[in-house]
Structures are given as structure tokens and as C-alpha cells.
Amino acid sequence: MAINFKLAIAVVCLAALLGCSTSNLQVAEVGSYHVGGRAVTLSGLPEKELLFTPGAPPLKLNPNGDFEVEALYTRYTLLANPKSRYPLLLWHGGGLSGVTWETKPDGAPGWENYFLRAGYSVYVSDAVERGRASWARYPEIFKSEPFFRPKKEAWELFRIGDTDSYNTAPAQRTALPGTQFPVAAFDQFAKQSIPRWGTNDPATQAAYDAYVDKVCPCVIVVHSQGGNFAFNSASKYPDKVRALVAVETSGSPNPDTFDFARVKGVPMLWVWGDNLGKFPFWGRIAAQQEKFRGNLIAAGGIGDRIVLPDVGIKGNTHMLMMDRNSDQVAGLIDQWLAKQGLKK
């Protein structure tokens, strides 16, 4: 599909100047729930005596019994008169939660707000092990200990600064030239980082599949590590996923074995920020995603791509939904979804 992205950019900018993003929202319902997961019974674990509240007597804690684990949490805002035909599901990346899509670290409105005002009902989820989806005991249920992302890794892996440009002192960090990330808010962003486990992908996929089965038909917008789960859910429910937008996705099923015929009716869009070529890790990921996208197109599907610097938008990081120009990027996605016939 031929898309004039530079014209789309001009339209998005004009809409912002006309104040489209400040219109009042007419909300029909706000709610939340957990979906998926399984029941587990633990036994044989020792009791402990703990003081739960200062000033109260200690209580015996018995860790044995029945538990509900490995569910996904979602919060939704349904518009009274949506302009979109289907709700938008926002899926986060690794070591993060649904906060990715909410208010940005610098206090500016995030993509949840943008897409609500663009006419989409929006669901924001926390995957298994993240945020309000909660943890489970390990090694009894989660089979490994969690691991945590240092700020240095986030600064460099997310292409905010170059290799070895991070410093504990904020004033001594060196960001990439022209970065769109609000670097003064980086430490605020780091507060969003939460532990993750390397052994929970099957449980996470099962919960996402249950989520799609319950909520959709829908459109999925997925970031980074979440991409693999989204592609698999689209393959399982191709009649329910009406489009998939892969934002800087770092994972996908094996393009040599994936059944692209199942998803050729699901339009897909890949969105990439700047400076991919400076980092070999991201160069390899982008090449793998190009193979995946090419195979989708060869199977007869729609596999479009926006590389932001190629359309004149420069300086975006891996966290482009938090960058200063994130509304401009969201506007391009909105334009693409409209071209797929997904808006009324």
C-alpha cells in the first residue's frame, strides 16, 4: 500500500493546531478486571511468624493453600460514541507495565490519552508478572528468580544515549544528539521499571490469548518484547485481531516456521525510531523483523513500515511513545488505521 507519510504528518500537525486533541471525552464506562491464569495448590511449606502491623501482635503465616496465579490485568475506558470500529489494546514491553501508555515521565499526556481523544476506546494491560497482574511464589510457581534492569541498561538499550554514556549523576549523562526523549525526566521514567522473569512466556502467552478471546474484535498496538505475544495471538485469533501495530518490536515468532497464511488478513504496521544503525543489537532485530514482514507480504498480507527518520522525523528513541513528539508519531498510526477502514 502506498502511503504518503509526509502528507500525513502535515495533516496530523494541522489537526493539533486546530485543537482536536482538546475536545471533551464522552465516556460510557471505565473499569478493570483480570483474565486468564490458573488455580494452584501449594503444600508442605513451613509456617512463619510475622509482624504485619506495628503495634499489633504477630501472626502465623501459612503459605500453603489455594491460589490464583498467572492472570493478566486490564483497565479500560469505553467511549460513548467512538470513531473507531474496534477498541485499541495497548500492550507493553519487557520490564515495564501498562504505565508505558499512560502519562509520560515528563508529565505530558501519553498515548492512552491521545487515542481516546482520537476516538478509540482503549484497554491498557499489565501482563503476567507485571504491575497489578501480580507475582506468584518462586520457585514453586514462577520457576526462576526475577531480574531487574539497571538504569544504565535502560539509558543505552533504549537508545537515549550511546554506549557508556550513562552516569549516576544526571548532569554527567550524555544523550544522543537531537534526542526526542525528555532526558530531564529519565530518573522519573526509571521508576516504572519492574522485575521480570525469564521463565513465564508460556503463561504470558496463554493470558494474552484469553484476553484477545474475551475483548476482541480489536486492534493491538504492541511495544518491544510484547510483539512476540501479539503476533502469536493474531495467529490464534485472526478473525478477532483486525490490525496489529508493532512499535519497535524486539521479538516475533520464527519467520521460517510461522504460518503467515493464517494472518494474511490482519493488516500490520511496523514503526521504528531513530539511530537503529548505531547499535548492532537493534540492527539485528530490525533485520529479523524485515524478514518477518517480507514473509507476511509474500503470503498476500499487508505489512507496512514507518521508519521515522525516513519520513523526516528524527531523534526518536525505543520509547517513542514517551518522546516529546509522541503525538506526531501517534498521529501517523491513527492515519494508517483509518486507511485500513478501521474508523467510522
Automatic annotation (TrEMBL):
Signal sequence bounds: 1-28
GO molecular function, one term: hydrolase activity
Annotated coiled-coil segments of the chain: none
Membrane spanning stretches: none
Keyword Repeat in annotation: no
Xref: SUPFAM superfamilies: alpha/beta-Hydrolases
Keywords (A to Z) from UniProt: Hydrolase, Signal
Hydrolase found in the keyword field: yes
Domain AB hydrolase-1: 219-260
Protein name (Swiss-Prot/TrEMBL): Alpha/beta fold hydrolase
Species name: Variovorax humicola
